[in-house]
Amino acid sequence: MRNIRKLDFSNNNFYIGIDVHKKSWCVTLNSQQMNLETFSMNPSPSELKKYLNKNYPNGKYFSVYEAGFCGFWIHRELCKLGINNLVINPADVPTTDKEKRYKTDSRDSHKLSRELANHCLRAIYIPDEFAESIRGLCRLRERIVSHQTRLKNRIKSFLTVKGKDFTPNSECKHWSANFVRTLKEMTFSQEIDKQTFQFHLKELEETRQQVLEVTRQLRSHTKTDTCQAIIKYLLTVPGVGFIVAITFYTEIIDISRFKNNDHLASFVDFTPGTHSSGEKNRTTGLTPRRNRYLRYLLIEAAWVAIRKDPALFIQYSTLLKRMPKQNAIIRIAKKMVSRMRNVWIKERPYLLGILE
């Protein structure tokens, strides 16, 4: 009887590019700088692990997929199964012109496995499950507030169409309880219009209650020792309220991953893009690549900060002499980011004129 040698790939590294979809994965295996195979499979980390153990036993497995709709559960499962996985920003994958023009699932997975084997991919930061959950709750609040703004605009548009325009005032701007009561008392010549208007107001009230409830939940879930202390320090920075503080915390989670203030400002996108060729240098302004939950919020906070902090107001006034106010306030917001990073790292409250 012949001795059958079992396959053993102990000295081989396998680089696995996974093009993730909801109903299937397209997977490419790369080893020794060549593609071994490309195949489609069910979206299951355990099935992938079984396939590797069966066909390439004892190998060292490295995988990668692009961040997107599926979140990070796949990453966590792959790591539990012993596969070294990366999650990357799709925009950071080196891509040839041909791959841009002829895009298929197999090409995408091949590209991922190739660049993983070449060590050209940089993983994004992945929070733990609690941090990811509280970030999701904070982002939910932002979406509900956006919906609330659309409802208010819809109500104002309806009143304009019906000739019921009203004079703007502070109550109208903030939609106080007294202002909403005034809206409820409005009369219309047609009963149908009144019913339609009442439906709009009812939806608005329900949405406002959702905003309040989500905010209460955020305050409740941030009472852990570490989280509560960080938010307490952030609140000492002029212009920073609870929503700005909790959004900043949930989007950053680990401040140590930013090596300096410029690195953090780049993440928020307060660093302008540049175009340099030969002796020509051109600044292109803020880029579309940004954290969309932070940038606009910090700019709004900067408008409040210049009213509360004399030092920032002086700096803002100086900037106005050489640039438009929109550009000046962005620089103030960048200064605020620096202050927030400092109080977080040093774990002490902000003091005017001392901690910069």
Please, how many domains? Answer: 3
Report the structural category.
Answer: alpha/beta
Helicity level: 40-55%
Total count of helical runs of at least 4 residues: 14
Termini distance? 79 Å
Low-confidence stretches: none
What's the quaternary structure here? single chain
Radius of gyration: 27 Å
Shape: globular
On the 0 to 100 scale, the average pLDDT is 89
Strand content: 5-15%
- The largest beta-sheet arranges its strands as 3-2-1-4-5
Question: How do the SSEs run, as a string of H and E?
Answer: EEEHEHEHHHHHHHHHEEHHH
User: Mind describing the biggest β-sheet?
Assistant: 5 strands, mixed
Number of strands: 7
What does this structure look like?
- By secondary structure, the chain is an alpha/beta fold.
- The protein folds into three domains: 105 residues, YqgF/RNase H-like domain (Nucleotidyltransferase, domain 5), CATH 3.30.420; 93 residues; 107 residues, no CATH class.
- 53% of the residues lie in helices and 13% in strands.
- The chain has 14 helices and seven strands.
- A five-stranded mixed beta sheet has the order 3-2-1-4-5. Strands 6-7 form a two-stranded antiparallel ribbon.
- α13 runs antiparallel to α14.
- The radius of gyration is 27 Å and the shape is globular.
